[in-house]
Amino acid sequence: MKYKMLCTDMDGTLLNSNKDISDRTKEAIKKAHEKGVHIVVSTGRMFNSANYYADMLHIKAPIISANGAFIREKDKNDVIYKNVLGKDKCNSLLKVLQKHKVHAHFHTPNAMFSDKMVFSAKIYSDMNSYLPEDNKIDIHIVEKDWEQIFEKYEDSIVKCIAIDEDVEKIKNVKSEIMKMSGIEVVSSYENNCEIMTEGVSKGRGVEILAGYYGLNPEEIICIGDNENDLSMIKVAGLGIAMGNAPEDIKKQADYVTDNNDSDGVAKAIEKFILNS
């Protein structure tokens, strides 16, 4: 068997527009898993949120969360990898966000700190209404005690995300943050930028898991749809872009599958794993 690990992004890839995983996709993943392929969920989301959707696959799947900053086996407490921002970077990032009047969102694997119940904080708060207790996100609204938060959670904050309806404002924030040293910046949508510590990416997460399982890049398929997926699409032996991905992502992939509402992930698995 040529391919031994499949890494798939979540939003815009594994999940359709209704935030569901289609039956065809579940079946294809199940059959690939039964053939001995390691199935990996790779996302910018927090671990707890990703874990909820990974449960839908009904298989043991390690999770690359926070764009590669936190990697854990789904059904174990074993943390394979963690790389935090640290309090100094958090304080520097907060100053930039406040300067541009963009609401702050800082993530640990299972908690979020924001200055207002908007954007990601509101989305995760709404999700808590139906998430199982083990997958709920612990949300904290911080008014002015940020330094204490950064001190207390220095060993836990893995990602900062800036989101705003004003895309130009986000572009300005991203441009300024990219000039800072010791960080990585990517976007999963045009209205956000996601910040991790230097060296963190989904691609690096894939490399870490490849070492964990003793695999070569040629034995790995990665599927995604946006900028934060590009690093893993490039590092894979077979990098696949979704049909709904922007054109610049498609051009850098080895293959383009169908979109996320037309079973693009399932069709890729069927073509390259099940029917090969």
TrEMBL record:
<dbReference type="InterPro" id="IPR006379">
    <property type="entry name" value="HAD-SF_hydro_IIB"/>
</dbReference>
<protein>
    <submittedName>
        <fullName>Cof-type HAD-IIB family hydrolase</fullName>
    </submittedName>
</protein>
<dbReference type="Pfam" id="PF08282">
    <property type="entry name" value="Hydrolase_3"/>
</dbReference>
<keyword id="KW-0378">Hydrolase</keyword>
<dbReference type="GO" id="GO:0016787">
    <property type="term" value="F:hydrolase activity"/>
</dbReference>
<dbReference type="InterPro" id="IPR000150">
    <property type="entry name" value="Cof"/>
</dbReference>
